[in-house]
Structures are given as structure tokens and as C-alpha cells.
Specification:
Distance between the termini of chain B: 39 Å
Distance between the termini of chain A: 30 Å
Shape of chain B: globular
Largest sheet of chain A: 2 strands, antiparallel
Helix content of chain B: 25-40%
Strand order of the largest sheet of chain A: 1-2
Structural class of chain B: alpha/beta
Strand order of the largest sheet of chain B: 5-6-7-3-8-9
Number of helices of chain B: 9
Strand content of chain A: 5-15%
Oligomer: heterodimer
Structural class of chain A: mainly alpha
Strand content of chain B: 25-35%
Number of strands of chain A: 2
């Protein structure tokens, strides 16, 4: 997994994003056991307390659940994962639209650009 | 959670130069803390006071509630800025040395780490490269099951791959109820492994906050904040 962190946001929120992406994309499939806190911390090169905080946040959102002795697991609720995917997609789309607006493209031009790119991909 | 290190109005003066001018600082257990400041801000002085290599000229410093002494040093693992092992020793002899001195030295953990580095136990420190010496000294320091690790510039002067190795070694080896104090000015490299940052400026603490709180409230990294605060 690619663990890069931007300077302008807390590390734990960015960890949440990375982990959500891993769940949504199926790198951590529904029902799968997540690596232990220490393992994730080592892999990402971050503080174990930060990983703990990120996992608690995902638990609060219902994306993962913990079983007292067995560890943490990805939810099996497909709808929940689909909603997380929508949230993530919406966030990314907003960032994209922001960037296009800053480049001076209006809505119509932006949509036209997307259509054109889709044509290129299909061709 | 309890307090492992406490400084109250801690002062240190070297003849005419005041190195620490009244430091108040409390560190809890289970934390990785960055001791950050420009050269000459008092980082090394503070660490040396904590392991009893220097005595305060004012105020006090307490480790686990007690003044620095052989008893507190038994739970403090110190990585000096410069290698402090005799150069004629081999890696094996250095491990014997640590085993003799410290009851909490985990020989098996040290041997395991040395093997993985592909470092010959019979090689003398004199013939090791600078990076290898730093790794060996860090391995010995982290192989102790201490309550407080004091790491003075553990990543200064080594290449980025060695830096990663050193940070991962720290993360792998400290126990969850131990506290690690890392002094450095290479902030960007350590930022993600820190719980808290302490900024030292001209011998006093000007900031002590959690790394994520700094990012959350100021919208910038600790590295960026440091560059701003200490800009010339």
C-alpha cells in the first residue's frame, strides 16, 4: 500500500482515508482480518497510537469491528462499504471540480473534457 | 497513564552560558516525543540531565518520581550523540558489555537484529562504517526493556534508508508503556512516528503539543511550523 501523508491535515485522518480506500477497493475484503496495530504502524512508518486512533474512527463509522481477542475485521455489510465508496468518490470529485474551476473551466467545459477523456479511454 | 519524566524550573548553566533557563516539562508513559530545536537550544543538555551525566544548577528533574541516580538509570536507555563504545570492541563484546551493565538487556533481541543487518558479530567497531556504528549503538539501546529511551540525534548524519531502518527499529522495539524521547532537527523524517512535539528555544520550552493537534489547528506540519517559528 502507498502510505504518503500531506502536510496540511492530521496524520490519523489521512490514515483513515488510506484504510477506507483499501477496504473500498477490496485490498481488505469484507470480513477480512486487519493487520495488527503494530504491523500497520510499521508498514506505514507511523506512531502506533495514531493507527489506534484511525482504527477507532473507522470503528465508529462502522467500517470495521473488533472482536475482543481475535482482532479487527472489515465489516461484512456491503451497503456500508458502498456508502463509504460513495463518500470517497464524492470527496475526490469535489477536489477535481475545485481544481478545474481554478483552471478557469466552467461546468460545461469540464463535462466536455470528461466525455472526451472517456472517449480516449474507450478507443 | 503516569508521568515518567518531569522537569520543574530546570536550569543548567555552563560557567557563563545558560543552556537551560527554567524548563517545565512533563512526559507521560507510552509516548513517542520529539525534542526539537535548533543547534544550541539545549536538547543535549536536557537529555544529559535526565540520565545524570550533568547536574542541574537550579530546579529539578525527576525520572519516575526520583532524581537521576543509578536506580533511575536502570530504567533509562540512553543513546548518546556520538558513539560511546570503545572502538576495539566487537559487536559480540559490546553485547556482553550491555548484558553485564543492564539487567533489562534482551540479548536475543540484539542478536536477532544484528544478524538481520548481516553484521558479523566478530567485527570490531573500529572497522565499521559510520552508518553501521550508529545502527549497532541503536540496536544496543533499543534491546533494553527500559521505561524511558533517550535518543540524542539517532538519525543525524546517516542516509535515508538507514534513517528508515532506525525509525522502524524504534517502533518495533519500544514497549507500549515506555516513553521514547527523540532529539533531532530532521523533523520531516520523524514527524509521522511522533505523538508529541516539544520545541526548545534558547533553553526553554516554547511549545509542547500533540502532532495531530498541531496539524489540525494550524493546518500545517510540525516541520513547516518549525521552519516558521525558527526562521531567521
Amino acid at each position: 500500500m502507498d502510505w504518503t501523508f500531506r502536510a496540511d491535515a492530521p496524520i490519523y485522518t489521512q490514515l483513515c482515508e488510506h484504510l477506507t480506500l483499501a477496504i473500498v477497493s477490496g485490498a481488505f475484503p469484507p470480513g477480512a482480518r486487519l493487520p495488527a496495530v503494530r504491523e500497520l504502524a510499521l508498514d506505514a512508518g507511523v506512531n502506533p497510537n495514531t493507527v489506534q486512533r484511525a482504527l477507532s474512527e473507522l470503528e465508529r463509522q462502522g467500517l470495521v469491528y473488533s472482536q475482543r481477542t481475535a482482532g479487527r475485521f472489515v465489516t461484512e455489510d456491503a451497503e456500508h462499504i458502498a456508502r463509504a465508496r460513495e463518500r470517497l468518490a464524492e470527496e475526490r470529485a469535489r477536489v477535481f471540480l475545485d481544481a478545474m474551476a481554478r483552471l478557469g473551466l466552467d461546468r460545461i467545459q469540464t463535462v466536455a473534457l470528461l466525455e472526451q477523456l472517456r472517449g480516449d479511454v474507450e478507443a | 497513564m503516569s508521568t515518567i519524566l518531569e522537569c520543574r524550573a530546570l536550569k543548567k548553566r555552563y560557567i557563563t552560558k545558560e543552556a537551560l533557563g527554567g524548563v517545565d516539562l512533563t512526559l507521560e508513559t507510552g509516548r513517542i516525543v520529539g525534542l526539537l530545536g535548533p543547534n544550541g537550544s539545549g536538547k543535549t543538555t536536557l537529555i544529559k540531565l535526565a540520565c545524570g551525566l550533568l547536574t542541574p544548577t537550579g530546579g529539578e528533574i525527576l525520572i519516575d518520581g526520583r532524581k537521576p541516580s543509578p536506580e533511575t538509570n536502570a530504567v533509562v536507555s540512553y543513546l548518546p550523540e556520538r558513539i560511546a563504545l570503545p572502538l576495539w570492541m566487537t559487536a559480540e563484546q559490546a553485547m556482553d558489555f550491555y548484558g553485564d551493565f543492564y539487567a533489562d538487556f534482551r540479548r536475543d533481541a540484539a542478536e536477532d537484529m544484528i544478524d538481520r543487518l548481516k553484521l558479523e558479530q566478530t567485527q570490531t567497531i573500529r572497522t565499521m562504517s559510520k552508518g553501521m556504528r550508529e545502527k549497532l549503538q541503536l540496536i544496543l539501546t533499543m534491546a533494553r526493556a527500559a521505561k524511558l529511551y533517550l535518543l540524542d540525534e539517532p538519525i543525524g548524519g546517516v542516509d535515508p534508508a538507514t534513517r528508515d531502518y532506525i525509525l522502524k527499529t524504534i517502533l518495533t522495539n519500544y514497549s507500549e508503556d515506555a516513553t521514547v524521547l527523540i532529539s533531532t532537527h530532521l523533523i520531516a523524517d520523524v514527524e509521522a512516528v511522533l505523538d508529541e512535539a516539544v520545541f526548545l528555544r534558547e533553553g526553554s520550552v516554547m511549545l509542547h503539543e500533540s502532532v495531530d493537534a498541531i496539524r489540525e489547528t494550524r493546518g500545517k506540519s510540525v516541520d513547516e511550523l518549525f521552519r516558521e517559528v525558527f526562521a531567521y
